[in-house]
Amino acid sequence: MSPLSRRAFVSVALATLLVGCGGHPAARETTTQQTGSTGSTGGSGSTPPPGADSAKAAPALARSVPVGLRIPAIGVDTPLIQLGLAADGSVRVPPVTAHDRAGWYRHSPTPGQTGPSVILGHVTVGSYGDGVFRHLDRLRRGDRIVARLENGTSAVFAVTALRTVAKADFPTADVYGNVDRPELRLITCGGPRTGNGYLDNVIVFATLTSATP
Predict the structure, then answer these.
(1) Torsion sign over Cα 39, 48, 42, 142
(2) One CATH from 2.40.260.10, 2.10.270.10, 3.40.309.10, 1.10.357.10 for 3-212
(3) Which pTM was predicted?
């Protein structure tokens, strides 16, 4: 990752994620660990979840932009768009459209590179109904996630943990912190819904297990 990209990647650590879901940071201190997840239920200072499992990571892949994402366990098969930063320094989210798509945060590593690759998607898309990540919270450890790369390779990941956290207690170190193997983060909104949207974020952690041509 270039120095500029790395600075942009790290800068989101203080930003609110997925404001496009309609959520605003809530003054809550609860962090909920879902069934089948691993690691600490602590806040932004905790680090166990990404590497707390026993999954054996595959060797890192060369950089290649992701163009699609499949999650068989929840019926997801979506093209990926590229997302940058908004003017306020937060991560942009995919546009709210009838044909909802997930987006890869382009200042993060590409899926399969060493480090945490970040993909965001909506849980709902207003009057259009369910978003592409509507059932993200149903994933369990071991479920397969496949990122299709521009160079024709498919990077295959296995879920290692799933966490639902209050937006005010977003675990930035766990999501954006350095790791020594190829990992993936999928993020959407979740939890209680209010007039302003959802109060929580759902975060899936996954580790690269293989690659196919």
Answers:
(1) negative
(2) 2.40.260.10
(3) 0.80
